[in-house]
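ok new one. same drill as before - structure tokens go in, u give me an amino acid for every spot. 456 of them this time. try not to just spam alanines like last time pls lmao
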């Protein structure tokens, strides 16, 4: 039996470079707040506790950590000080303590597991994930001699020789739970930034005769997010991973680079996604379904073999049944489309239930909002709604009923009935030519008047 893992997530930095009222760790990436990615990644290590370190008054961040507890770092005095704030919450924990940053959502569970396993195997008091950086200048450098990690030197404190080191600190650190209190409390702030550096734990452990190690990983996982530009870079990286995973699991993406997925998008095998499709959070697409170009889908289920788009918008709470068709310029909101139902063109279906095999004609609108409340439209199975109909909710159209084109339906239509909700057409035989003559004469009079006025 291995001892349990505890995780500490540091998220009390100021994040000023984002220039945002929204805390940095709540900025969205692949449809999730950044912090949710971090929490989802660490969850896979099955820690017995996860503790968030936040700044004072960061209620939204605390909420994002829930159900995990948070502790407050009173002033942003550095990563070492932030980690120390979690010591109370680590009371009694004796296994590895993994410290990660809230603004590094790309670190994979596999890398974290590798670090923890290496620390256990080699009996290290401190271990860090390191990487060879293209540009090491912003990072702490790992000073390694003969396979032993001697210390970490922050960029601002590095001497000329240390500055040439390109093996850098990712920020992910694993500490022995039995030593963590002693190591962190010894960290001081006599350095270039007057900050308490978590990275000093390495030299402190070494001085006390303990072992420290560095485990190498890929640079792509360790880019932190400090600015909007870095957020965009991370989004790209994450999208690449999600697209690759979709392709590997048997999904066709005709133009992968233009498909935007959410972290939780579930695509079954044999799903086909056309170009320029965007998924918000909470979407699942069942086997054999096809999403054509330029669709936007959020919070919805798409059933087996259903066909959606091109140019469809499916909003939260929608459920498209098996074999259903949603065509171009169709918007669904909180709508259940029954099996084999069709809405092929230019339609808004909101707060509605569409029965199996029912056909919704072009230009149909469910009038679900009266300016104050939302109301439901219920359409039973095998109904035909003629084009350009307005269904004023709450309203119910019974099984097999037929609503004629251009109707405004304000009352329930019983099953099997035909409903006309429009003025009856009037046709006057042979009246087209006289009507034209009359209109022509009227136009001539008007033109003559205008010419006279101009001459004056
Ligand atoms: C840190 C590391 C550096 C490493 C780099 C990787 C230290 C001293 N340096 O530098 O070796 O190469 O990350 O990206 O650890 N935070 C707090 N409270 C604080 C300060 C920071 O909670 O008082 C949190 C931040 O919210 C952030 C994380 O700690 O999530 C990292 O802080 P940051 O200031 O960005 O560290 P770096 O200077 O980038
Ligand atoms: Ca940083």
């Amino acid at each position: 039996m291995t001892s349990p893992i505890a995780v500490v997530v540091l998220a009390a930095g100021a994040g000023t470079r984002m220039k945002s009222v929204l805390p940095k760790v709540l900025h969205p990436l692949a449809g999730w707040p950044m912090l949710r990615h971090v929490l989802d990644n660490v969850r896979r290590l099955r820690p017995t506790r996860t503790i968030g370190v936040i700044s004072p008054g960061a209620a939204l961040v605390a909420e994002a950590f829930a159900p995990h507890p948070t502790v407050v770092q009173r002033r942003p005095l550095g990563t070492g000080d932030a980690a120390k704030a979690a010591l109370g919450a680590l009371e009694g924990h004796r296994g590895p303590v993994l410290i990660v940053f809230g603004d590094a959502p790309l670190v994979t569970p596999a890398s974290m597991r590798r670090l923890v396993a290496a620390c256990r195997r080699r009996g290290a008091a401190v271990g860090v994930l390191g990487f060879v950086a293209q540009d090491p200048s912003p990072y702490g450098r790992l000073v390694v001699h003969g396979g032993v990690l001697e210390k970490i030197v922050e960029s601002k404190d590095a001497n000329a020789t240390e500055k040439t080191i390109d093996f850098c600190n990712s920020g992910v650190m694993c500490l022995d739970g039995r030593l963590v209190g002693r190591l962190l409390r010894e960290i001081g702030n006599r350095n270039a930034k007057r900050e308490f550096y978590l990275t000093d734990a390495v030299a402190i452990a070494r001085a006390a005769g303990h072992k420290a190690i560095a485990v190498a990983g890929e640079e792509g996982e360790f880019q932190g997010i400090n600015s909007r530009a870095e957020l965009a870079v991370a989004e790209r990286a994450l999208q690449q991973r999600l697209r690759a995973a979709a392709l590997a699991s048997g999904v066709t993406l005709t133009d992968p680079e233009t498909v935007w997925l959410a972290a939780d998008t579930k695509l079954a095998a044999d799903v086909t996604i056309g170009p320029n499709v965007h998924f918000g959070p909470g979407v699942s697409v069942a086997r054999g379904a096809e999403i054509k170009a330029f669709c936007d889908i959020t919070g919805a289920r798409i059933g087996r073999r259903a066909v959606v788009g091109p140019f469809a918008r499916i909003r939260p709470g929608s459920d498209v049944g098996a074999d259903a068709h949603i065509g171009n310029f169709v918007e669904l909101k909180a709508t259940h489309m029954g099996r084999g139902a069709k809405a092929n063109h230019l339609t808004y279906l909101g707060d509605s239930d569409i029965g199996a095999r029912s056909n919704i004609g072009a230009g149909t609108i469910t009038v679900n909002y009266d300016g104050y409340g939302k109301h439901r439209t219920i359409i039973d199975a095998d109904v035909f709604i003629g084009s350009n109909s307005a269904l004023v909710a709450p309203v119910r159209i019974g099984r097999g009923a037929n609503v004629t084109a251009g109707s405004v339906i304000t009352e329930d239509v019983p099953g099997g009935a035909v409903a006309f909700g429009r003025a009856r057409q009037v046709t006057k035989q042979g009246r087209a030519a006289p009507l034209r003559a009359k209109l022509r004469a009227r136009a001539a009079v008007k033109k003559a008047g205008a010419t006279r006025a101009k001459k004056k």
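DSSP finds nine helices and 35 strands in the chain. and btw The radius of gyration is 32 Å.
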